[in-house]
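Per reviewer request, we include the raw input and output of the structure prediction for the construct analysed in the revised manuscript.
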Amino acid sequence: MNKATIMDNIDSLLEKGNVLYEKGLYNEAIKSFYEVIELAPNNYSAWNNKGNALSKKKLYYKAIESYNEAIKIEPNNYLAWYNKGIALSKKYLYDEAIECYNEAIKLNPNNPAIWYEKGFLFHKNGMYDEQIKCYDEIIKLNPNDYIAWYNKGCILINLELHDEAIVCYDEVLKLNPNCSDTWRIKGDILYFKNLHDEAIICFEEVIKLNRNDSVNWINKAIVLSNNRLYDEAIKYLDKAIELNPKDCEAWSCKGFVLYEKELDDEAIECCNEAIRLNPNIVDAWDIKGRMLSIKGTLDEAKKCFQMAELLFEKREIGCFNGIRVTHRGL
């Protein structure tokens, strides 16, 4: 077989492997890449793409071996360093993965995908300041990348830097005014800063974008109730219940608003419904306890308060961690 024919076979097998990979036929793709390697042991793409197929099968250590071979052949090609970093991160070897991303960045500093992956691992290691630096690099590369602004805002919230987070979310909304999550999170921040009128505007935008999610109606109702606009709040909670009769938070919030309006029996009915739907809902037990105390049924009230206290101690509050963007490429 002459050299030209061998080269044609290599190209054909490599293309075949890539097509099989795209179709999700990873075993067959691996066979094609192996055949390329048999003919051309120094073929960078075959080793790299074989690693990708092995990663898809979650054979990460074998994938890393393939990426190592690719790196030996072309140490100045960023792609195998990047893909090796992803495989290492899947095995929770975050420090080693970051080292790979650092090598990839040296070779291709203008690729935002590498910065995203590196930032994600800094988050896993709790290194939020370093994670923010990664998003800042992405924003330098593309100030219109709203996901980088969004993720940066999420990390700033974790650091309780709420004003800086709002700046990021404002950038997101300039670039993508239909991002309902951003309006919601901004509304949450404004609410906790006691800027209720501004929060209401945000939650109204969320409702415009997604009228069928009961949570959006509940959020605005909470702010309205804090402004003592109880009748308006109840309208929004009734809408939430109409959309999702099994939303225990809607029933619990309605119970609280009715409690504030001193409609004790109706409040207890709402709390009972919330508890029926979710026996672990803290607020409903607490509100029911208050109502029963007012009505003088102190033993029952005490049981409610004890349940609320027990559930509160067990409750875990999570943080939103942002969006992960991964581009591996072949």
